[in-house]
Amino acid sequence: MNFYNVLVTYESTSIPFVNEDRKLTYDSSTPGEKEACYRRVAALNEELGIKCTSNKSTSIFVHCVTNNTLCVAFAIDLEHGSLQGAKKYLSEYIYKNFDVVNIKYSEQNEFAVEDFCKLLYGGTRKDLLKPAHEIIEELGLDYFGNNQYKIKEEMLEDKKISLKEARRKATKILADKSLMDEIERIYSEDNTKKYYGNPVHYEVIASNKAAADDIINVLTLSLKSNKRLLGKRISRISEITNLCYDEEDVENIFSNARGGAVVIDMSGSEEDHGNYASSYHEVIDYFTAQAEKYQLNTLFIFVELTNHPGFSKPLLSKMQENMDIVELREGSASRNVVKDFIKEECKRRGLKTQDEDVEQSLSEGDLFTVGEAYVAVNTLYKDSLKNTWYKAYKKVSCVAIEADECHEEAYEKLMKMVGLSEVKKIIGNIIDAEKIRKMRSQMGIDNNKQSMHMIFTGNPGSAKTTVARLLAEILYKEGVTESDTFIECGRADLVGKYVGWTARTVRAKFREAKGGVLFIDEAYSLVDDSNTFGDEAINTIVQEMENNREETIVIFAGYPEKMKSFLDKNEGLRSRIAFHVDFPDYNADELCEILELMAKQKGYSLSDDAKKKCQDIFLEVCTKPEFGNGRFVRTLLEQAEMAQASRILKENKGKKIKRDLLNEMKAEDFEVNASKCTKETKKIGFSVDC
């Protein structure tokens, strides 16, 4: 849908008016004539209005009237209509119903949706239109102000650029080869210079928004110049929350962008969502369904910012099944070229720079991305605010807060984990073996990369998931894998509801985890006698494990006995597993150590009596089957926190509570019955007796 504001001028016929209802002019000096003309225009709007043409492609609204002039807003679906056709329809209507001649059109401007809506509100205030909000809602344009996303619209330059100009613009932004190649394809003589729909969509990968915007600007201008876009309006959606699903507003955005483009920033909201594949799965499903629905006529440009990729991987891995997506990356250049880029950008912003300042704005090295160049520009600009324009702040002291240094390497974290001596040894062997394999490969001794798929067995709370996540980081740091991507999933994430869905879902997960680790928890739950789709999942997993054996590591995890039975029934799966890592239950001493670490992280200390009490609890609980290991310790500590709070308030009623009292946990805070905290107990709710 495209939106226009057009000025319509005309002259009244020379013959005296016989029928006052056919007058479209007025004499402001004659009482009541202006009001009568306004009423006739209001009646005109009632007959025209929403989807008034025979093919329903055009909506027409007169929002302002002066003598011999109408200001008209058009909403046109350019796939089925045109501005020229809309003007012809309006002219025929006016000639038929009013005594005017010599209709002319001027000031034909394409507008953004928000500006179009403002014109409608103006027409309502003049009593020319029915309530604007009703028109806006009926046209599906009321998608601004939704808290689940931010939307902004931009208008492209109103000019056509040549291939030479497109190349020049791309070179100016230090474009990557991927964009240069796409420009050549867009301008290729093999393409028809007429709009039929979108053969491909795009993913723009950049380190920050400025670098991504450069790519999008050159791309969309090139497409518009080759009639691959029907209008100038670009809709940008960002700050998408994990509740943005089943939103009619999103579908309206996609629908009204037909013939145009929608840019989707996949960073998500500013909150820390941890595993985006899990917390955004409903958003991913919804956006995939809507994008596939409108892909033929709405161009989608997906933006992945490398410093905050958000839900980009799971979304695109799912969309690639039914959409063709071309990847465009930000460019990079040598130090001298980037310095020239920085100077030019600073000059554009009105900032004078010295060569020395530009040199110092870059870190060491000889190759920099466009995103890094923009960071340098922003740094120079920020410094100039105080050093050039607001010199009074040049020497002012600012607040300095020291950040906690807590960035431990993944390998160090693994080694510091309580217990797991055999697990650490096996993981160490895996890493060492892979290092040697790489050395042999580099020397030409052996180029065959062996399978790295694994099985982790152990009871709940034995740190299988934590170790797998750390392993993904370690393998990436050691250069074993291409990415530190860690995708965690279970039966619900792999088995589809309908025939054919499961294989597609499994392949999407493998694409999502490409270059990293795919962690399948409780894998044996895939085999369910009540649902044959589980077998489809297993067969597809085996096939994908083989197809991606050099790119993706699959780790199956679950209970020891169930995993053994699972493998016994799937010989094809068993033959592809290279490593079996068993996670034993923690003993009482290890559980005590884990408790003290957890308490320390929360700022608590345990009295000697409390340590003794917990030792007794752990000795008892370790005799129970599947007692929860680390999860039991976390639950115990959480219950102790609540008991401690009650004790402190009761003991110090009306008194000032000191810091050391808040930090210390005593034996009575751990008064729980461990025998009731094991798997057999299925109570609901909380009790200090557990």
From TrEMBL:
Molecular-function annotations in GO: ATP binding; ATP hydrolysis activity
The protein's UniProt keywords, in alphabetical order, are: ATP-binding, Nucleotide-binding
| SMART domains referenced in this protein's UniProt entry, alphabetically | AAA
Record organism: Butyrivibrio proteoclasticus (strain ATCC 51982 / DSM 14932 / B316)
Instruction: Give the matching InterPro entries.
Output: AAA+_ATPase, AAA_lid_6, ATPase_AAA_core, CbxX/CfxQ, CbxX/CfxQ_RuBisCO_ESX, P-loop_NTPase
Q: Which Gene3D superfamilies match?
A: 1.10.8.60, P-loop containing nucleotide triphosphate hydrolases
Residues covered by the AAA+ ATPase domain: 450-585
- Which family does the UniProt entry place this protein in? Belongs to the CbxX/CfxQ family.
What name does this protein carry? Answer: ATPase AAA family
Upper classification of the organism: Bacteria, Bacillati, Bacillota, Clostridia, Lachnospirales
